[in-house]
Structures
1.
Amino acid sequence: AQKITQTQPGMFVQEKEAVTLDCTYDTSDQSYGLFWYKQPSSGEMIFLIYQGSYDEQNATEGRYSLNFQKARKSANLVISASQLGDSAMYFCATWSGATNKLIFGTGTLLAVQP
Amino acid sequence: KAGVTQTPRYLIKTRGQQVTLSCSPISGHRSVSWYQQTPGQGLQFLFEYFSETQRNKGNFPGRFSGRQFSNSRSEMNVSTLELGDSALYLCASSYTGTSGRSSYEQYFGPGTRLTVT
């Protein structure tokens, strides 16, 4: 069975600074994917970034990068140059190919302060 | 290309009633998944539909059901509502290739916020 653990219920960061959101995972799949989603107060889940287990390089998408450490089973999200609009819940997730579903962590609430 | 749409966006129901939520996937997407999000249980997978068939199901009681139409639109139904069914219900669609394998890229709708009183 797959499991995602996010140990930070909430985080504060100053505007323009970088912040790292932690995520560890547990899976028995040989091939798997890891995701980060952003959920603003409106409720919609916004896809941010994806890392495949066989990707040798860390994924990057604009200000988002995923620090993938396979041996440690961690997939931390790094947001550079934080903006006020980054304030939201952030969810780490993994994809179960066997059941076609995303398995989510409990989320981290990020607050960006001016 | 239009995104995933869900209707209604907000709903208030009374215990014991039943409710139907609707989801229209992105054009060309044939797989539709439903998730329930509550403060206590977080995000949990309800079920997935593909080609009008339920392909996968999460661990929810039989009061939760769904269906998919030939145009890939999906509905989920909750009968005999309980207070604990108050949640944000999210629908996601993804592309499925000719092999029947769905892409991991799930596109979410804005959700339906259900309140049961």
2.
Amino acid sequence: NAGVMQNPRHLVRRRGQEARLRCSPMKGHSHVYWYRQLPEEGLKFMVYLQKENIIDESGMPKERFSAEFPKEGPSILRIQQVVRGDSAAYFCASSSTPGWGYTFGSGTRLTVV
Amino acid sequence: GQQVMQIPQYQHVQEGEDFTTYCNSSTTLSNIQWYKQRPGGHPVFLIQLVKSGEVKKQKRLTFQFGEAKKNSSLHITATQTTDVGTYFCAEETSGSRLTFGEGTQLTVNP
């Protein structure tokens, strides 16, 4: 059981470029959650997905951010036209049954220069 | 929206001393989960409390859920350097999203 896999671990983008963050949940887990953590702060919920469905995207900024979890392959968090304020750690979490703790990936540290 | 307040923000202790972090809410919590995040690491699930007045122990860690389900605490007895990290409480709200507190950053001086 490889756990929740996220890649890349570190990502550097220039302002205006696109960032793509990938997350593969634990085997057997069908629920994926994305959280953002600014330096020295707690984690903030962004989006909750099941295979091919967005369940709750209330934490996603209205512009430039999108997420998907296709039938095959990892979940993708996409940030278009990145700005310096997007610099943060982005964590993916998965669970087999909501309510019994979540397993987090190692995160992607995005730096926008 | 729902907010979970956590105090203190920072705590420095000598190895062997005890440590407590508190989580408070102005409204009734449906449940509380605790996570630990090592420096540069990711959150790791520690425990979930659901029942009013619930107390759970994991070796040197004691977790409590208040009678009114508006507060929770994590107590570590005789801290060790391996306890270093940030401890977060979080409520799982309807729709399966976690609302995290701001965390308590623990440093332990050997």
